[in-house]
Amino acid sequence: MEKIAEIIVVFIVFMIPMYGLLIWTYFCPEESLLWGKRWMYKEEPEISEGAIRYTKIASLTAIVVLTIIFGALTFS
After folding, report:
1. Which residues of 55-64 are buried (b: 16+ CB within 10 A; e: fewer)?
2. Are 66 and 14 within 8 A, CB to CB?
3. Which of 8, 36, 59, 73 has the least CB density, counted as fewest CB within 10 Å?
């Protein structure tokens, strides 16, 4: 019973914000790439299509890997 409570706490505290950040990164890659760095530029920087594609693939991969890890921890 303690393990179930432990998993629920980890999910609420860690996984939900992580999934939220990764989903936001997937749907708004330009915004996520400039998050915390806008002050360095006088004008809006132009982000390459390769960087956008890489960011989307990386966030999608992280979502899949986190889901697999969480599933393995839950059902083991």
Report:
1. beeebeebbe
2. no
3. 36
Widest CA span of the chain, in angstroms? 55
Tell me if residue 42 falls in helix, strand or coil. coil
Candidates 75, 74, 72; CA nearest to 11 is 74
Express each pLDDT in 5-60 by its tens digit: 777 787 788 888 999 999 999 999 998 888 877 778 788 888 899 999 999 999 99
Residue 41: name the closest of 49, 33, 52 by CA: 33
Token match 């890659």: residue? 29
Please state the pTM of the whole predicted model. 0.79
Check if the beta carbon of residue 47 is closer than 8 Å to that of residue 30. yes
